[in-house]
């Protein structure tokens, strides 16, 4: 069931960025995270023979590699109905209270997972 609550502009931007990355790379998932300074990091699913990361794991890794120490929010665009426990955990590690918006490929928010 879609989440009917309106998103703040910064949160809607995360979904737009995740959708764009997913479409540009023809990836299974796209994700975006916002750190505590307002910077955003965008990534898609990484599927190599020697490395596999979900889009949200890749986006968090990019944030950490760029010096982020805390997250405010995250968004993932996927055809899947849910979010893996590992994906929730990686966001929670840097943002225990950070919401995760899970949207379908059209950008409609299916659920919001609270930290």
CATH superfamily: Cytidine Deaminase, domain 2
Helical content, roughly? 25-40%
Major β-sheet annotation: 5 strands, mixed
| Number of DSSP-assigned strands | 7
Widest sheet: strand ordering: 2-1-5-6-7
CATH topology: Cytidine Deaminase, domain 2
Mean pLDDT: 94
Indicate the low-confidence ranges by residue numbers. Answer: none
Would you list the SSEs in sequence order as H and E?
A: HEEEEHEHEE
Q: Strand pairing plus helix content: what structural class?
A: alpha+beta
Number of helix segments? 3
Number of domains: 1
Give the CATH level 1 class.
Alpha Beta
Q: What percentage of amino acids are in beta strands? A: 25-35%
CATH architecture: 3-Layer(aba) Sandwich
Radius of gyration from the CA trace?
A: 13 Å
What do you see in this structure?
With about 120 residues, the chain is of the alpha+beta class. The protein has a single domain (about 10-115), classed as Cytidine Deaminase, domain 2 (3-Layer(aba) Sandwich), CATH 3.40.140. About 35% of the residues lie in helices and about 30% in strands. It is built from three helices and seven strands; from the N terminus they run H-E-E-E-E-H-E-H-E-E. It has helices spanning about 10-25, 55-65, 85-95, and strands at about 30-35, 40-45, 45, 50-55, 70-80, 100-105, 110-115. The longest helix has 17 residues, at about 10-25. It is globular. About 40% of the residues are buried.
Give me some keywords for this one:
Cytidine Deaminase, domain 2, five-stranded mixed sheet, about 120 residues, alpha+beta, two-stranded antiparallel ribbon, about 30% strand, globular
